[in-house]
Specification:
The chain contains 2 helices and 8 strands. It is of the alpha+beta class.
Length: 100
């Protein structure tokens, strides 16, 4: 499960019903599976991330430049990454519904 921490806290607030006992439990015991918190996951993703591969192109580009206004040297490294989903059915987007 990949989700934002804010979504996880919302789940805890709904499940706890005013009790603080759930806030001390690890996320794996609440959700039932390992949880990865990511601020970019605006929609929670449930799936087996063994079916998601990142392919790196081995050629890195090193570049330098000088800012003539400040005199600072700028160093840039560029790399290319390709994401490959091996099994699309291994992933689902979860819908977060507010309580009430």
């Amino acid at each position: 499960v990949c989700m934002t921490y804010a979504d996880y806290v919302r789940i805890l607030q709904t499940l706890s019903n005013g009790s603080a006992a759930l806030f001390n439990a690890p996320p794996e015991s609440i959700i039932g599976k390992p949880v990865v918190f990511c601020d970019s996951a605006t929609t929670p993703i449930v799936g087996d991330f063994n079916y998601c591969h990142l392919n790196y192109d081995g050629q890195l580009v090193y570049d330098t430049d000088k800012d003539v206004n400040t005199g600072d040297y700028l160093f840039v490294i560029t790399a290319w990454i390709d994401q490959h989903i091996l099994l699309k059915s291994a992933f689902r987007r979860a819908k977060v519904v507010p309580a009430g």
